[in-house]
C-alpha cells in the first residue's frame, strides 16, 4: 500500500563521463602542467531518498526534496485518507477471508477517523489544504499500488494481493511521515496528529504482515 525514480539520461551520463576517459587515454605533455578542472563530479549521484519495497509489489514512493508547508502536508494526508478508505471499502466487499474483511473494515474506520480529526484541525487553525507536486505524485503512487486488485481472482489470490498492497501502502505512509512530514511540520498540533497517525499505521502494518504470513501458510486451492 510510488513516486517516479529519478535517473540521469544515458546521453547526459556519457557527456559527464567521456571527458575523464579521454583525459586518461592521452599521454601527458612534458611542457603542459596539469591544471585543476571544474564542473560536474565524475560520478554524480541522484539525490533521491531510499524507499521500501516488498517482493510482491515493488511500487515505491519517491517524493520531491523541497520543503513542505503545513497546508501541503494536510493535503497529502487527505489524499492518503481518501484513497485508503476507497480501496479498503472495495476490499471489504470483495475479500473472502474473515480476518482480511475485518482488517479492511478497520482500515476504513482509521482513515475516516484521521480525516475527521485533520479536518477539525485545519478549520480550527484556518489552514487550507494546498495541493502540489507531492500530493499529486502520492495519489498516483497509491493508485499504482492497488491496481493489481483489478485483475486478481476472488478468493485467496485476491485476499493475498490486497494484503500485500496494504503492506506496501502502509510502509510508504510511515516512510513519508518520517522523511517528509516530520522534518517540515511547524504547527505543534499537526505534529501531534502525525504522531497519532504514525502509531496507528505502524500497528496496522504489523497486523497486515501477520495476516500475510497466515495467508501464505494456507494450502493452495
Automatic annotation (TrEMBL):
It comes from the Bacteria. Residues 69-211 form the DUF4142 domain. Residues 52-66 have a biased composition (Polar residues). It comes from Nannocystis pusilla. This is DUF4142 domain-containing protein. Residues 34-51 have a biased composition (Low complexity). InterPro entries: DUF4142. Pfam families: DUF4142. Keywords: Signal. PANTHER family: BLR2558 PROTEIN. Residues 24-67 are annotated as: Disordered. Residues 1-24 form the signal peptide. The keyword Endoplasmic reticulum does not apply.
Amino acid at each position: 500500500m510510488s513516486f517516479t525514480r529519478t535517473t540521469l539520461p544515458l546521453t547526459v551520463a556519457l557527456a559527464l563521463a567521456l571527458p575523464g576517459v579521454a583525459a586518461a587515454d592521452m599521454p601527458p605533455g612534458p611542457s603542459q602542467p596539469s591544471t585543476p578542472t571544474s564542473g560536474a563530479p565524475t560520478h554524480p549521484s541522484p539525490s533521491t531518498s531510499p524507499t521500501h519495497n516488498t517482493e510482491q509489489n515493488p511500487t515505491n514512493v519517491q517524493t520531491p526534496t523541497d520543503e513542505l508547508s503545513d497546508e501541503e502536508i494536510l493535503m497529502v494526508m487527505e489524499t492518503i485518507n481518501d484513497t485508503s478508505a476507497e480501496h479498503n471499502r472495495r476490499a471489504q466487499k470483495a475479500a473472502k477471508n474473515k480476518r482480511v474483511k475485518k482488517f479492511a473494515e478497520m482500515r476504513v474506520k482509521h482513515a475516516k477517523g484521521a480525516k475527521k480529526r485533520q479536518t477539525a484541525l485545519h478549520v480550527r487553525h484556518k489552514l487550507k489544504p494546498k495541493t502540489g507536486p507531492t500530493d499529486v505524485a502520492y495519489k498516483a503512487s497509491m493508485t499504482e499500488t492497488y491496481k493489481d486488485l483489478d485483475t486478481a481472482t476472488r478468493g485467496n489470490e485476491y485476499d493475498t494481493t490486497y494484503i500485500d498492497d496494504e503492506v506496501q501502502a502502509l510502509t510508504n505512509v510511515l516512510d513519508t511521515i518520517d522523511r517528509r512530514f516530520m522534518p517540515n511540520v511547524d504547527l505543534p498540533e499537526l505534529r501531534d496528529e502525525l504522531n497519532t497517525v504514525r502509531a496507528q499505521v505502524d500497528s496496522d502494518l504489523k497486523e497486515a504482515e501477520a495476516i500475510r504470513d497466515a495467508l501464505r501458510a494456507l494450502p493452495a486451492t
